[in-house]
Amino acid sequence: MKVLVPVKRVIDYNVKVRVKPDQTGVDLANVKMSMNPFDEIATEEAVRLKEKGVATEVVVVSIGPQQAQETIRTALAMGADRGILIVTDQDAEPLAVAKLLKAVIAEESPNLVVMGKQAIDGDNNAVGQMLAALLDWPQATFASKLEVTADKATVTREIDGGLQTLDVSLPAVITADLRLNEPRYASLPNIMKAKKKEIAMKTAADYGVDVSPKLKVLKVTEPPKRSAGIKVADAAELVGKLKSEGVL
Amino acid sequence: MAVLVIADHTNAALGEATAKVVAAAQKIGGDIDVLVAGQGAQGAADAAAKLDGVRKVLLAQSDALGHQLAEAVTDTVVGLAGGYDAILAPSTSAGKNFAPRIAAKLDVNQITDVIEIVSADTFVRPIYAGNALETVQSSDAKKVMTIRTTAFKAVGETGSATVEAVTAAGAAGREASFVGEEVVKSDRPELVGAKIVVSGGRAMGSAEEFHKVIEPLADKLGAAVGASRAAVDAGYAPNDYQVGQTGKVVAPDLYIAVGISGAIQHLAGMKDSKVIVAINKDADAPIFQVADYGIVGDYKTVVPELMTALG
Ligand SMILES: Cc1cc2nc3c(=O)[nH]c(=O)nc-3n(C[C@H](O)[C@H](O)[C@H](O)COP(=O)(O)OP(=O)(O)OC[C@H]3O[C@@H](n4cnc5c(N)ncnc54)[C@H](O)[C@@H]3O)c2cc1C
């Protein structure tokens, strides 16, 4: 079974995001970039499926700038077999990303797509569901547990109020939540090995997909700032303050 | 102009989120219909019919819709989409699951987590864990969006719309099927709509401690219980308690964070609360930068004192 894992290069989750003064976006110059944390979880899950003998090949795809090669290398060092980078200069919108992935899937014919539930930059939480729609495949989002057999996946999903379990027949799209697994750190020998693995370089035009934006970003602004309040000495003083605020 | 609101519900009852999405729909303008897609969902439909500003309630029922499977909800909505300029769902786990699928079937982008409707085609949404707000204009013929319900005030319940049955997509030929559900029933208020939230963090150290410290304080205040990711990952609290960028977003009148450091991802889920209280033994914890009132100290002494002070 072949598993496809889309991965995105995003601002590192520890970086303090700064909005540009001209309100055109956030400042990404000289900030640390990493693999989207949910995509690391998806990669880990796919590699574990391979280690269990369920999957035979794990292919990672990234859509982004040239530097996204590093993101693919990270996944290869974790144990993925080969990569595909579709180079785009602008951040493609979720629907365009889903269309590109659909085109990749037409060539690669994977049995399963495992991907992050959201990217921590755009916070859209959309590509997996959109991809499943375009392929007319079943979807199981926000997975915290995954069991895969030859023709179906049993997925435990995190939902409001608790957990839900679904059976989806393969091929299917699964999106990973935080508790699906804890991604490994790549070992030095595996990082070295990953350097020799193949990354195919492509463009959006190769797949005939238009990635020009459909949503116009009018401005990007800072949220209203909260200022630090006061420290109170003890619980009694706190209760007094909360009563005078009218929240108790 | 006509707007379709996809209801949040549990079949028997309407979820609190629905009235807030209707409020967002009113900001767009035009006729508002509410779709209740479920099974045995007459109760939810009747409740939706009472919401102010609703023209009619559409009730679609099938087994697959009973669990709101994304495939069945999508097919049902796509069948109705011709009559609408905008389709709105709440940013609940169910809404987040099916809305992008609907958008893709209609060949449009989804606008996720809308917090402000500027006009019928311009919307504000948080990005980067709420560290930036993006104002986007959509030229798509149909707008599909999820609504962050904490940003909208629920409409009233004095209406009397009609309930009309519509065609439901069934499970036939569907490759996703429901196996089971573990939903914890609680007498406490729902986390997302609660007026007061008490959250516990990694400092709790164990599930027993979480029960012993956080829950009694919450119950004394009539509050909902929340948690940080660290507390959930460690098994101190169930997954649906998680507040943050990738958990639930809350904006209560009062948010009390106990033993939570205040990571960006946690702040993303609670920084729009009216009053924030932090109890933390580290005076430099980032949570104090957003807290209106902070107590520096060990929760093991502060929380019991707070229980006493509350009487
Ligand atoms: C992709 C991604 C998504 C994430 N999403 C979320 C999310 O949705 N929600 C979320 O919460 N986190 C999220 N996180 C995790 C986040 O980065 C933090 O790791 C997490 O919030 C930390 O939880 P905490 O504050 O409970 O633990 P810690 O950071 O360990 O803080 C514990 C705090 O307790 C205090 N303390 C310890 N003992 C005591 C005591 N006896 N009395 C009083 N205070 C005490 C300490 O001083 C410390 O400040 C996410 C991370 C990633 C990478």
Characterize this entry briefly.
The complex is a heterodimer of chains A (248) and B (311). Helices cover 28% and strands 31% of the residues of chain A. Chain A is α/β, with parallel strands linked by helices and 248 residues long.
Largest sheet of chain A: 9 strands, mixed
- What low-confidence regions of chain B span 5 or more consecutive residues with pLDDT below 50? none
CATH class of chain A, named Alpha Beta
Number of domains of chain A: 1
Biggest β-sheet of chain B: count, sense, barrel? Answer: 7 strands, parallel
Instruction: State the helix count of chain B.
Output: 9
- Counted beta strands of chain B: 16
Helix content of chain A: 25-40%
How many helical elements of chain A? 6
What is the overall silhouette of chain B? globular
Radius of gyration of chain B from the CA trace? 20 Å
Can you characterise this structure?
The complex is a heterodimer of chains A (248) and B (311). Chain A is α/β, with parallel strands linked by helices and 248 residues long. Chain A has one domain (2-244): Rossmann fold (3-Layer(aba) Sandwich). Chain A contains six helices and 13 strands. Chain A has helices at 37-51, 68-78, 94-108, 127-135, 188-195, 235-245, and strands spanning 2-7, 9-11, 33-35, 57-64, 82-87, 112-116, 139-148, 152-159, 162-169, 172-176, 199-203, 215-221, 230-231. In chain A, helix 2 links the parallel strand 4 and strand 5. The radius of gyration of chain A is 21 Å and the shape is globular. The N and C termini of chain A lie far apart (58 Å). The model of chain A has no long low-confidence stretch (mean pLDDT 97). Chain B is α/β, with parallel strands linked by helices. Chain B has nine helices and 16 strands. Chain B has a seven-stranded parallel beta sheet, with helices on both faces. In chain B, helix 4 crosses helix 5 (93-105) and helix 6 (207-221) packs parallel to helix 9. The longest helix of chain B is centred in the last third of the chain and has 15 residues, at 207-221. The radius of gyration of chain B is 20 Å and the shape is globular. The mean pLDDT of chain B is 96. The chains are: A alpha/beta (248), B alpha/beta (311). At the A-B interface, helix 3, helix 4, strand 7, strand 8 and strand 9 of A face helix 4, helix 5, strand 5, strand 7 and strand 8 of B. Strand 13 of chain A pairs parallel with strand 16 of chain B, so a sheet runs across the interface. The complex binds flavin-adenine dinucleotide (FAD). Flavin-adenine dinucleotide sits between chains B (201-203, 228-231, 242-247, 259-261, 263, 265-266, 269, 280-282, 285, 298-300) and A (13, 37, 120).
